[in-house]
C-alpha cells in the first residue's frame, strides 16, 4: 500500500499537537519518566543482546578512531561535570571559608533559606535557579542526579586539586 504524504504529514502534525498538549498538562518530567520506564523495560527484555551490540560498537569505534578518541571523550566529560556543578561548589567553598562545616552544609534544606540571605546574593540563588536538578529531596545541595550530597563525596569534591 503506497504511503500518502498528505496523511503522513497530517499524522505528524497531530502527533506534535498531542505531544505539546501532554507536555502542558504533565510537564517535561513526565516524558523523562516514561522514557526511563521504557528504557528499563527494554533492557530487562533484551539486556543480553544490547551487551553484545555495545561491545561490538565499542570495538568498531576503537578501531576507527583509536584510544585517543576515548581519552578526549573522558576529558570533555570531566570538564562538563565540573561546569555542571561549578556554582554549587563555589557556594559550598564560600560557606566553608565562613566557618560552616560540611555536615551542616549538606543538611541544609529550603526551610533554612531565610538565614542564608548572604549566600543567596553570592551564588546560591543562581545555583538553585539554574544548576540544581529537579529533585524529590528538600536538601539545598544535591548531586547532578538530584540525590542529596553525601559526606564522603562532599569531602572528596572539596579537596584541592
Structure described in brief:
This protein has 161 residues and is mostly helical.
Descriptive keywords:
161 residues; mainly alpha; 7 helices; 73% helix; 0% strand
Assign the structural class, choosing from mainly alpha, mainly beta, alpha/beta, alpha+beta, or little secondary structure.
mainly alpha
Report Rg.
22 Å
Shape field: extended
Count, helices: 7
Give the biggest beta sheet: none
Element string (H = helix, E = strand): HHHHHHH
Which residues form runs of ≥5 with pLDDT under 50? none
Number of beta-strand segments: 0
Bin the strand percentage.
under 5%
Give average pLDDT, whole number: 86
What percent of the residues sit in helical stretches (DSSP H or I)? over 70%
Tell me the distance between the termini.
64 Å
Amino acid at each position: 500500500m503506497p504511503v500518502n504524504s498528505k496523511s503522513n504529514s497530517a499524522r505528524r502534525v497531530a502527533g506534535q499537537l498531542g505531544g505539546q498538549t501532554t507536555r502542558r498538562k504533565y510537564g517535561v518530567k513526565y516524558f523523562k519518566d516514561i522514557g526511563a520506564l521504557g528504557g528499563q523495560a527494554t533492557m530487562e527484555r533484551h539486556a543480553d543482546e544490547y551487551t553484545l551490540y555495545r561491545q561490538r560498537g565499542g570495538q568498531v569505534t576503537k578501531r576507527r578512531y583509536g584510544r585517543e578518541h576515548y581519552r578526549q571523550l573522558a576529558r570533555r566529560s570531566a570538564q562538563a561535570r565540573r561546569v555542571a556543578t561549578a556554582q554549587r561548589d563555589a557556594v559550598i567553598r564560600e560557606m566553608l571559608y565562613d566557618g560552616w562545616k560540611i555536615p551542616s552544609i549538606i543538611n541544609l534544606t529550603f526551610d533554612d533559606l531565610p538565614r542564608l540571605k548572604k549566600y543567596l546574593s553570592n551564588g546560591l540563588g543562581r545555583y538553585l535557579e539554574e544548576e540544581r536538578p529537579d529533585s524529590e529531596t528538600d536538601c539545598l545541595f544535591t548531586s547532578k542526579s538530584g540525590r542529596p550530597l553525601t559526606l564522603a563525596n562532599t569531602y572528596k569534591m572539596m579537596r584541592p586539586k
